[in-house]
Amino acid sequence: MAGIVRRAVLGHMRAPVVQKSLSLHGSKKLLHNPIFFRSMSSHGDDHLTKQEVIDRVLSVIKDFPKVDPSKVTADVHFQKDLGLDSLDNVELVMALEEEFKLEIPDLEADKIDSCKVAIEYIYNHPMAG
Amino acid sequence: MSATYLARKAALKQRVRLLYRRSLKDTLNWAVHRHLFYGDADDLRNKFEANKHVEDLETIDRMIAVGEATYNKWRHPDPYIVPWAPGGTKFCRNPVPPAGIEIVYDYGREDND
């Protein structure tokens, strides 16, 4: 008796599956299947636009104390154009890591030695904050 | 300037850069507050700058080995690692569920419904 009532009640109270229609305009993180769409997760949040990355990288380089801000453009080479030392290069890469909350492996960080390389690396990094 | 000499010198330069990078990060781990960190970072930089003009490769090699030993001695037991990186707190926390696994919405439905 109780089982029949339970079944009838539950049959009326079934929660509907919401079929969201997701349009993929530029947002790479949403999958087609709505079951995998976790709306309140901040995992892999926003991907930066290229212009934002360029602006932030240039502002970090301009704020570096050993750099002359008027010489900084988007394709300077740190050691050749800005006259920095290799250790200054290391410090600059660390400053960029802190700005974008990245963790760059040591050997990759060694290869970043111009503005263009830095912008490319950060733009293509999936977790760039 | 033979090729082996240049190759050895380039390798030593890379070791110096990696040592500087790791010791700078370690300095930041130990001196969490920025005003303390800037002082310590300047001291570290001066230590590197003092030996900048050494020419002999053997001496450089020995100095780098001493530097790496000092770095290993002073490594922080609980370094700050960015959360999503290996060793961080968020690493592997919420992995993407494997494909094909889904929730079946049939709560309360019996087999002969």
TrEMBL record, chain A:
<keyword id="KW-0275">Fatty acid biosynthesis</keyword>
<keyword id="KW-0443">Lipid metabolism</keyword>
<keyword id="KW-0813">Transport</keyword>
<dbReference type="GO" id="GO:0000035">
    <property type="term" value="F:acyl binding"/>
</dbReference>
<keyword id="KW-0276">Fatty acid metabolism</keyword>
<comment type="similarity">
    <text>Belongs to the acyl carrier protein (ACP) family.</text>
</comment>
<feature type="domain" description="Carrier">
    <location>
        <begin position="51"/>
        <end position="126"/>
    </location>
</feature>
<keyword id="KW-0809">Transit peptide</keyword>
<dbReference type="GO" id="GO:0005739">
    <property type="term" value="C:mitochondrion"/>
</dbReference>
<keyword id="KW-0679">Respiratory chain</keyword>
<keyword id="KW-0596">Phosphopantetheine</keyword>
<keyword id="KW-0597">Phosphoprotein</keyword>
<comment type="subunit">
    <text>Complex I is composed of at least 49 different subunits.</text>
</comment>
<protein>
    <recommendedName>
        <fullName>Acyl carrier protein</fullName>
    </recommendedName>
</protein>
<dbReference type="InterPro" id="IPR009081">
    <property type="entry name" value="PP-bd_ACP"/>
</dbReference>
<dbReference type="InterPro" id="IPR003231">
    <property type="entry name" value="ACP"/>
</dbReference>
<dbReference type="InterPro" id="IPR036736">
    <property type="entry name" value="ACP-like_sf"/>
</dbReference>
<keyword id="KW-0444">Lipid biosynthesis</keyword>
<dbReference type="GO" id="GO:0000036">
    <property type="term" value="F:acyl carrier activity"/>
</dbReference>
<comment type="function">
    <text>Carrier of the growing fatty acid chain in fatty acid biosynthesis. May be involved in the synthesis of short and medium chain fatty acids. Accessory and non-catalytic subunit of the mitochondrial membrane respiratory chain NADH dehydrogenase (Complex I), which functions in the transfer of electrons from NADH to the respiratory chain.</text>
</comment>
<keyword id="KW-0496">Mitochondrion</keyword>
<dbReference type="Pfam" id="PF00550">
    <property type="entry name" value="PP-binding"/>
</dbReference>
Automatic annotation (TrEMBL), chain B:
<keyword id="KW-0249">Electron transport</keyword>
<dbReference type="InterPro" id="IPR033034">
    <property type="entry name" value="NDUFB9"/>
</dbReference>
<keyword id="KW-0007">Acetylation</keyword>
<dbReference type="InterPro" id="IPR045292">
    <property type="entry name" value="Complex1_LYR_NDUFB9_LYRM3"/>
</dbReference>
<keyword id="KW-0813">Transport</keyword>
<protein>
    <recommendedName>
        <fullName>NADH dehydrogenase [ubiquinone] 1 beta subcomplex subunit 9</fullName>
    </recommendedName>
</protein>
<keyword id="KW-0472">Membrane</keyword>
<dbReference type="GO" id="GO:0006120">
    <property type="term" value="P:mitochondrial electron transport, NADH to ubiquinone"/>
</dbReference>
<keyword id="KW-0999">Mitochondrion inner membrane</keyword>
<dbReference type="GO" id="GO:0005743">
    <property type="term" value="C:mitochondrial inner membrane"/>
</dbReference>
<keyword id="KW-0496">Mitochondrion</keyword>
<keyword id="KW-0679">Respiratory chain</keyword>
<comment type="similarity">
    <text>Belongs to the complex I LYR family.</text>
</comment>
